[in-house]
Amino acid sequence: MIDAPGPWGTGPFVLTEGVSLIDSRSDRVVMEPNTTYWNPARKPTVRIVYDNVIGKAEGIKSVAAGDGRVDVVFDLTPDEAHAFPASEHGRIQTKKAKTILTGVFNENRPDSPWRDPEARQAINLAIDQAFVLEHGAHGYGTVIPAFIQPGRYGADPDMKPMPHDPEGAKRTLDGLGLGGRELVFVASPAWKGVVEAIGQCLAKVGLGCRFVSDRGDLPDDFDVKLEWYFDWTPQYPVACVHREFFGCDATLRQGPEDPKFDALYDKLLHTPEAETEGVVREVERYLQDEAKALFLYSPFTLFAVSDRVAFTPYDTCMSELAETRIQG
Amino acid sequence: MDAQATGDPGGGQPWGPHNTVTVVDPSPVNWLSITWNTMEEANRVDHDGIGQPSLAESWRWLDGETLELKMRDAVYQDGEPFDAAMFKLGFDKVQEWTNPHPPGAFLNFARDVTCDAVDDRTVRMRFPGGDSAALMKLRGMHLPSTRFWNEWGFVDPKTGSAEGHW
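Predict the joint structure of the above. Result:
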């Protein structure tokens, strides 16, 4: 990361004021167009000012009011986008980005029921993914079979989302002695509506559901933790996303290492680049066959955007702004 | 700092609301967006999520272990020319650290990977045993100017280390 402004790179913008680090940011970070940029297709025409003081809620209000303080707000929650008022000055812009919202089963304890693929699969069968997307996230997303959106690099065209089979799910859960339990779902407050919709699905198979915010300490006895994640890579999703959930060096894994996943990842790394897509599909099928997670959907990225701006969002979820223009 | 270095829109045109876009980005990876807006790498990912050439205008695998990249004719914001030697400098710098990338060690090149500037425009990287993640890793290998390396080099002034600070 860059600890001081300066003409350090070859990129489309010059960092002229402020810094943005992992643990701190200047009140303003300013980037001005690089007049000598080599790529005419990405040559900026505007200065960018990141306002790190005003905050998201006030920024959204500013876009709706058209008061000129803010032009683009990133990373709205589904509720924030849904609540955006009818406005003559701004709009909600969506992007089918390379994202996932998925549930990580708590397999940390040796006696965890979620170490059993049959139990994990039953929870997946209990969930109506389209219902959760519509009622929990106002429809802002795409239902996906595992971790990759249909049509993307590595997506298996023969893979479909898991079926919704509440009867089958209930049979299995009862058979495993899990019927009647209250499941604890840990999630960001942004996904509380999603957990509530999941709860409606689970009620139909005789399970309870309790939301716990991830802003506090993670309780030992939680069942599922919802995680949002994104893929910034040039067609190498397994390293960025799948590995982060299941790899030996995963930061989001909630259970023991998985030698089968690690073997698939190693196979991918040693496959010639031109042949990797087949291995990525193999990884996707492994995830679904083993019900490695609670598969939900790929959330759209959501932005509040002033009508005076032509904004080009990136599928990588990064705020790369070279193509963003003032309208007219 | 002269007009070229600051990206002055030209002729002293002042910055104002008419040519400024104000952004609120609460993303925890905003730091990386700032880097990718101002510095570049061999390759990038476009707004549709597809890998594209950037400071390398092309590349090809000569065999299962050797990647050859052709560098673009580009100039740093401070006027320094970019060439294959600058790519190699970036590689040598990142290899000085054990775990420089905040996202994790999966972005590291193996210790036995080598990089040679064959001429002003051509780089050959050798990956013993092969590495299909090479281009993903190159996306995280920033290529700043000599002045940046001399003055900052991704070293955190608070710790004196570049580990986790690339």
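The beta strands of chain B are 20-24, 43-45, 51-53, 56-63, 66-71, 74-75, 81-82, 114-117, 122-126.
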